[in-house]
Amino acid sequence: FEEKMAADGRSNLKIVEGDFGYVLEDVPHLSDYLPNLETYPNPLQNNPSYAVVKQYFVHNDDTVPQKIVIQKNSPRGTHFRRAGPRQKVYFQPDDVQACIVTCGGLCPGLNTVIREIVCGLNHMYGVDKVFGIVDGYKGFYARNTVDLTPKSVDDIHKRGGTVLGTSRGGHDTMKIVDSIQDRGIHQVYIIGGDGTQKGASLIFEEIQRRGLKVAVAGIPKTIDNDIAVIDKSFGFDTAVGEAQRAINAAHVEASSVENGIGVVKLMGRYSGFIAMYATLASRDVDCCLIPESPFYLEGKGGLYEYIEKRLKENGHMVLVVAEGAGQELIAESLRSMDHQDASGNKLLLDVGLWLSQKIKDHFTNSGRMQITLKYIDPTYMIRAIPSIASDNVYCTLLAHSAIHGAMAGYTGFTVGLVNGRHTYIPFYRVTETRNKVVITDRMWARLLSSTNQPSFLSAKDIEEAKRAENLQKWRSSSGKFTLDGHH
Ligand code: ATP
Ligand code: MG
């Protein structure tokens, strides 16, 4: 077992025996490479507000299972370390200097996370030296920092965007760690998407190599909800809610004319969660297209046929399309194009414009049927709004988890909700795979029955989807190897 773990580069998998034996997928701790570190009592022990809370401190052995539904004879499951305050901390709060950085695209809730890290550090632990790194990773070595105090961040959660600024590209691990070392930073809070978390992992490794007493904590950000392992990412509910306004507008436009079609493009480069949930929430959508579910235009069971049927039945229709949907179809029309952004992400071709043109060509321009199509792309309007109440609460808890973890000496971790409980998850676990809509799962079936759209799937497609799903389940069940020998 241990050889297999080492071959997989997962030395932090630990078997925990007992009646409910499990595998703990642990996160690194400063004491792993800095033995004999001094510990301090958690200052929260003296905080009268918390004295009334029964069991306020999380026991060091508490874990959270990744899978909550257990099938008979399934191998022992993976658990993650439960997040929360510990009795002992590894930093003397008066000494701590912490910094916060935001990278990648905008997402509602960024400012709330920043605010709550600053206020949480200050109010719970008495840490008052917190500053922001301006404009993403490159700000570590290229730009000035800003001091962050509870006063200066007081109302930033009411604003969209990130008060610290953000950027793509510019990750130079050595220069970043040099800057952390030179500035005497003890805790680094990194808020960003998959690319950012990969960068955070490199920063952690270099810090460990240099033997620095610096905790690195990631707060995963993705409006698409495509981060593996975790239940939901912050900003997602806000995005689904704001998407309703675009869908409503499309519905009003479409239903006000004869054969009106409203097309709304929503975010979702690789995962169609926003499109799926926005569709399920709205009930005005007749068809939802996502990257995970291939579709085709022409012929029997195709999109054109369905559109024509809906227009004849109902006089109008609303179509929601996730930005990553139908990329193979577009690529077929425009084979030569392949672009990347500054971080090396593949730039997708605009499916909304493409699909709108295709539909217009098929119906009106070919003289088949007179349609009126309105295309709405609310992407930047959605990304830029402040987070709604439920996301604000979630952001607060994520920020608190990150603070408690860093103070307790954990490092190289991201925070996340697993089965409704806050946990610490190793970086690689959230960056190596992506969370996707499983089209053979119940949720997608619910969507199909709510829109009544065709599945666009042949028997062969369904077989393939099932195979892919099984593979994904196998990968995410308990590491990349079997634990059968340890029943
Ligand atoms: P999103 O894609 O959701 O907007 P992201 O965090 O994935 O967020 P990116 O622009 O890909 O956004 O990356 C943000 C930062 O992380 C950039 O500064 C980039 O240089 C850095 N980064 C991206 N990928 C890596 C990587 N593999 N290793 C180190 N740094 C990376
Ligand atoms: Mg990314």
List keywords for this structure.
487 residues; alpha/beta; eleven-stranded mixed β-sheet; four-stranded parallel β-sheet; 17 helices; binds adenosine-5'-triphosphate; binds magnesium ion
Detailed description of the structure:
The chain starts with a helix and ends in a 10-residue tail after the last helix. The chain has 17 helices and 19 strands. By secondary structure, it is an alpha/beta fold. β10, α7 (194-210) and β11 (215-220) form a beta-alpha-beta unit. It has helices at 2-7, 30-33, 48-51, 110-125, 139-142, 173-183, 194-210, 236-255, 273-282, 303-314, 327-333, 351-365, 379-383, 389-407, 427-431, 442-451, 459-477; strands spanning 13-16, 22-25, 40-41, 63-65, 78-82, 88-89, 97-102, 129-133, 145-148, 187-192, 215-220, 260-266, 287-289, 316-322, 339-340, 346-347, 372-376, 413-418, 421-426. It binds adenosine-5'-triphosphate and magnesium ion. Residues 104, 193-195, 345 line the site of magnesium ion.
